[in-house]
Amino acid sequence: MSEKIIARGKIFELVQTEQPDGRLFEMARRAPGVRVIIADFLNKKVLLTREYRNELSAYDYRLPGGKVFDTLDEFAEFRRAKGDIKQAAHQKAIAESREEAAIAVDEIAYITTSKLGATVEWDLYIFEAKSWKVLDSQSLEIGEDITHEWYSFVDVEQKIMQGSMQEERVAMILLRWLKSPGGL
User: Of 19, 21, 125, 175, which is the most exposed, with the fewest CB atoms less than 10 Å away?
Assistant: First the structure.
């Protein structure tokens, strides 16, 4: 199916595709993101970021992460080149761990991809840091207001259940991870 981009902003593009029966299907697309579960199994803790989110006008607890591509143009070029999206997400997960959480990841494992839905394409690639070390400081981008702290598995579950983690699709994946022996 060929697609036609009918509108484009900085973050989203509106895409139409013609279905085999001739109907037009429309969706919004945005470049994918990554999130990283960083756990200290010895002390049964998970590292969460506390980040100011404009859409909430408040702080939110999150897993470290960010965008795989900074612009739609970069994402479009990557798709045209038929790049390996999991590999690109893997590299970005390592970079975001360093930048947002001051964690140097040596080994990382892919867990799952969270799909938003049929009419909005915004995939989130979730990874677990398997081997890592703590760095001295974060390397935040201009305008980012992010701190990080270790929370017990119990405290993280409570934050999820109380709604303190507003990125709910990631919170659900983290909850499943917490409840799975040895992780997902």
Answer: 21
Contact yes or no for 62/86 (Cβ under 8 A): no
Q: Against a cut of 0.85, is the pTM above it?
A: yes
Q: Which residues pair with 35 in a beta bridge?
A: 65, 126
143 sits in the region (left: phi over 0; alpha: psi -120 to 50; else beta) called left
Closest CA to 93 of 50, 49, 53, 128: 128
Contact 101, 145 (CB under 8 A): no
The token duo for 85 is: 């999206």
The one-letter amino acid code at 33 reads G
- Give the integer Cα–Cα distance in Å for 94 and 103: 9
DSSP state of 54: T
Q: What is the pLDDT of residue 141?
A: 84
Who's near 71: CB < 8 A, 6+ residues apart?
Answer: 10, 31
- Here the tokens at position 165 are 């983690």
Q: Which of 181, 182, 156 is nearest to 171 (CA)?
A: 156
Average pLDDT, the chain: 93
SS3 53: strand
Query: Does the domain spanning 34-179 belong to CATH 3.30.365.10?
Result: no
Numbered ranges of CATH 3.90.79.10 in the chain? 34-179
